Amino acid sequence: MFNDLKGKRVLITGSTMGIGLAAAQAFARCGAKVGINGRHAPQNLDALLGAMRADGGEAEFFAADLSVSAACTQLVADFVARFGGIDVLINNAGGLVGRKALTDIDDDFYKAVGDLNMRSALVCTQAALPHLKAAAAASGETSAVISVGSIAGHTGGGPGASLYGAAKAWLHNIHKNWVDYHTNDGIRFNIVSPGVFDTAFHADKSEEVRQRIAAGIPMGRFGQGADIAPSFLFFASHACSGYITGQILDVNGGQHMH
Ligand code: NAD
User: Fewer CB within 10 Å, N side or C side of the chain?
Assistant: First the structure.
């Protein structure tokens, strides 16, 4: 179904575990050339890359702390040096950083949440833009930017997660501007917006809290990597979504509806 992803060059930020890794593994199974990224190499890096290569993809790891603009630019340069260009950029790196009530937010926290969730996507997209444009011109197909939003971007976020929720809403919104001004470059911009997924993101929650959250989701459970990975394949595939841009795909088991 996603045959056109074979050989596509896909850079996924923050992808050594969780949702990003599930997406990377799915692209590898389609025969894509996949760049995974984290601040540091994970302990199981060789096994991760080996499995993706055995599945038919090319896979490489690129270390970069994407809270820092220069590291975002370097990541894109390193990926292009290895694979010769970029067809698909997935801005997945993100996280809560911590939880702080309105009364406790200080400049350092504001900067840390903004740098990880907004600056990283902004600067990676900026750096990838000429490469995505060149890839579209060369192939005659659209290139794709896919950013990972959040249910928090719609609802405002849970306890202490106001800045995180606002940062995700910012991502949901800035894509609209990119659609207006960069569709001519042959690039589509779409958001995959997860609900509650069973990753390290929720490591701070007790089993009791997890069960309470799950009970509030119509499907009665947290999402797993396999529940969301195909959404990235869909938005990356020109054959599947070549006329779809500026959209937010909510993957949340019915937890939030518009
Ligand atoms: P995770 O904690 O399992 O994975 C986070 C990934 O980001 C890891 O690979 C980590 O190495 C990387 N990362 C963290 N800081 C980084 C940095 N400074 N530079 C580079 N990489 C960095 O989390 P996840 O649940 O897989 O989250 C992935 C995305 O999905 C995030 O943008 C998150 O905000 C979003 N999201 C998650 C959920 C959820 O319920 N899990 C819900 C909504 C949105």
Answer: C
Rounded (10°) angle between helices 107-114 and 162-182 = 40
The H or E element spanning position 72 is: helix 69-83
With a 6 Å cutoff on the Cβ, whether 201 touches ligand 1 is yes
The mean pLDDT value for 218-223 works out to: 98
The best mutation among 17, 19, 118, 147 to test binding of ligand 1, ranked by most ligand atoms within 8 Å of the C-beta, falls on 19
Which residue CA neighbors atom 13 of ligand 1 most closely?
14
Helix/strand/coil for 94 = coil
pLDDT of residue 29: 98
Tell me which residue of 189, 62, 63, 60 sits closest to 122, measured CA to CA: 189
pTM: 0.98
- Per the prediction, the chain carries an average pLDDT of 97
Residue range 186-208, pLDDT digits in tens = 999 999 999 999 999 888 889 99
Radius of gyration (Cα) for the chain, nearest Å?
17
Percent of the chain with pLDDT over 90: 97
Assigned token pair, 46:
């060789």
Instruction: Evaluate: CB of 148 within 6 angstroms of ligand 1.
Output: yes
Q: Which CATH class is domain 3-251?
A: alpha beta
Nearest CA to ligand 1 atom 44: 150
User: Does 154 have pLDDT greater than 90?
Assistant: yes
d(CA 133, CA 137): 6
Amino acid letter for position 19 = I
Say yes or no: CB of residue 198 within 6 Å of ligand 1: no
